[in-house]
Amino acid sequence: MGIVMKKLLDLLSEEAGRAFEAAGYDASLGKVTVSNRPDLCEYQCNGAMAGAKQYRKAPVAIANEVAEKLAHSKVFKEAAAVPPGFLNLKISESFLLEYVKGMAAEEKFGLETSPRPRKIIIDYGGANVAKPLHVGHIRSAVIGESVKRICRYVGNEVIGDVHLGDWGLQMGLIITGLRERKPEMVYFDEDFQGEYPKEAPFTISELEEIYPAASARSKEDPEYKARAMEATYKLQSGNRGYRALWRHMMDVSVADLKKNYGSLNVEFDLWKGESDVHELIPELVAYMKDNHYAYISEGALVVDVKEETDTKEIPPCMILKSDGASLYNTTDLATIMERMRLYRPDEIVYVVDKRQDLYFEQVFRCARKTKLVTPGTELKFLGFGTMNGSDGKPFKTRDGGVMRLENLIRDTREEMLRKIKEGRQMPEEEAEKVADIVAVAALKYGDLSNQASKDYVFDIDRFTSFEGDTGPYILYTIVRIKSILGKYREQGGEIDKALLQEAGNESEKALMMELTGFNAMMQSAAEEIAPHRVCAYVYDLANAFNHFYHETKILGEEDEARRAGLVALLGLTRDVLECCIDVLGFSAPERM
Ligand code: ARG
Fold first, then answer.
1. Which of 133, 265, 290, 544 has the CA that lies 20 to 30 A from 187?
2. Nearest atom (ligand 1) to Cα of 360
3. d(CA 373, CA 44)
4. Is the CB of 350 under 6 A from ligand 1?
């Protein structure tokens, strides 16, 4: 474990606080923030304004006294009081250097990891077995993966669970569809006692064809739907043949899901699903009844979850339908029960479409009221908005169908490949590999850079652009740094971060200041479960770097020590950028 570094703004605030104190004011007035007028100063402190009332003094008079105390500060090289009472601050190059050197030397750049790690379960992905992954699932996978990595990076123990939809009506629909196509299959023979075949009687493409056909038919044909519900019921009650078929569907589907998630760098620790808690449901129901939490209403078993302060109607949480069947609720509650038993999490985060927010409100209230969770267990709903097409409606394929995730990746990859080839000569094979990597970044960054709860427009042209707030721009910046460092090494140079030097120009100083914001940014991204904060930071950092790059001779720098210092700064910038994109869930190629 490395040395923990205080956040730069805290150090600056302490210094300003000491000056307030020395001038006879409360030290807490010394709170320093990043300047909102970067043209005038780097940092600012509004403490004199805040203290004016308390001390019955003109703010500018206070600011003047404090500025005087800061005149010989080793931390600030400039402290100016400006009307009506602001303190405009500039950090000293030597202090900045010391801080950045500290970051470069420490593990995780000196990040203050949590002294008491929390155990967090992230419920994301949520694919439905035997249904193709569509763009609705991309957001859950992409956001959830990043949230998992961010929470882990700051020192928590994090478990990612895919929580498959593997137990509902879609399974019964497929069984019914299969039965119609191949009624002679042994799985449908009630008298069959032997062992079922090891090979699945279908491929993933067949499965994905059967499901939509069966689903469409069930909507028109009530008798067909009744059969599908019956099949679902039989499956859940343990019919041997159906269970064997279900196992095949799981194997075929999960293998395909792993491939798809894998191509997005999404990895789950647990591949559990609704079916895993089936056996727990009778116990859950008995517990709810015995403790008088649940009662029968119109034949169904429900738990009231409304509260006095509600401004809108929150319906009761239904545990069992009147026909005794369990619901989505039931499996989610049983899953909470199981997670508490197996993992005792401090927190469970659900990364799900925000249209399910009322549903989760009911589930959370029910879990709390019925004491399935301890009072200290946090249940959080991270609801995300819809990914829209350029027409502002949920994203569709050109012919109006549901866009499948793999096609979305394919289209993005093709566009990326075209742009990469346009930009430079590269052997075809390498260009394709690079396109794979950059396409994932384009897709993920395009999604993650928006606040999760907001809808966003999937704009392939913008997402794949090398300019602007995009994944390819960030990767391009990293590749640019790598290529300079590569040349430096070719010339026999060695990158040593201990050789960092004081900033030699404004853009270099701005880059160093941007680097210092890493720790505070990462912590707030974790606290707010907000990957878009990491995106905003990498974008600012990439801009600061590119500005610096255009203003500064690097390999052409003649002073050897300064050149080594510049190269060290490049190395640190690359490391911070790569750390950020890693928690966002993508990586950079060596060239592009
Ligand atoms: N399978 C669900 C869907 O496609 C998402 C599951 C979300 N997680 C949960 N614990 N309910 O809508």
1. 133
2. 11
3. 45
4. yes
